[in-house]
């Protein structure tokens, strides 16, 4: 009597290998690094770089366009059903949209300063889901996934434990969409409160520095979504307090930005006269 062969045990499927967000997380990390390498190459050869202006102190280089095109191309190959909104090429919102700034800190980039970054955010059904900020000149990669924390080069990061404004270091950039007098009044109030104010010129890196504790707050009256979405998720996942940037307009409009270590967030919001709508 011939025995029937035993059925082979089915190999369990690893959910992580097919989870859409995990796939995008893995891809986002790789794309950010590749885009950063291209930006670095342009930076190291910037003597031949074509530089123009989109507006007052608003730099545009051929590197911005090339890096954005690379990111768009990679995303189209991997996730053809997703849409993309970029600083240079625009785009449209959807339930699955990537929001990208190919070189955040272009003025620094064009002038030979190392303080610039690639910023990539993924928004799923109107909520920030993934964020990546890559600093080409230091090869530092910040990553965040909603509900899973934030990392720098794979190691968990946390916001600072600062609790007093007179111990705080903050970034307070000026937006030309608002009156200079209003910004001056705010700046005076923040300095009088004892804060140290900095303005290095990259929103993405400013927010990343809040997430890893090197800064205590980043506050701006108006920012484009591609400048800040990845960084805001980093701060939130690192234990900080952020405003709900996507409320009332989503990824298609400029909005105020607030990000701070939890210990100074209430005092900073009161000082800035910001009524927080938490994300």
Report on the architecture of this protein.
This protein has an eight-stranded mixed beta sheet, with helices on both faces. The chain folds into two domains: 20-156, Fructose-1,6-Bisphosphatase, subunit A, domain 1 (Fructose-1,6-Bisphosphatase, Chain A, domain 1, 2-Layer Sandwich); 165-271, D-Maltodextrin-Binding Protein, domain 2, CATH 3.40.190.80. The chain has eight helices and 15 strands. α6 (203-211) runs parallel beside α7 (225-237). The chain is α+β, with helices and mostly antiparallel strands and 279 residues long. The longest helix is centred in the N-terminal third of the chain and has 25 residues, at 20-44. The model is unreliable at 1-12 (pLDDT under 50). β9 and β10 (155-156) form a beta hairpin.
CATH homology group of the largest domain: Fructose-1,6-Bisphosphatase, subunit A, domain 1
Main sheet summary: 8 strands, mixed
The percent range for strand residues is 25-35%
Order of helices and strands: HHEEHEEEHEEEEEEHEHEHEEH
From the spread of the alpha carbons, the general shape counts as globular
Broad CATH class of the largest domain: Alpha Beta
Question: What is the helix fraction of residues, given as a range?
Answer: 25-40%
Low-confidence regions:
1-12
Distance linking N and C termini: 68 Å
Total of helices: 8
Strand numbers in spatial order across the main sheet: 4-3-5-6-7-8-9-10
The count of domains is 2
User: From the helix content, strand content and strand pairing, which structural class follows?
Assistant: alpha+beta
Mean pLDDT: 88
Number of strands: 15
CATH topology description of the largest domain: Fructose-1,6-Bisphosphatase, Chain A, domain 1
CATH architecture of the largest domain: 2-Layer Sandwich
Give me the Rg, rounded. Answer: 21 Å
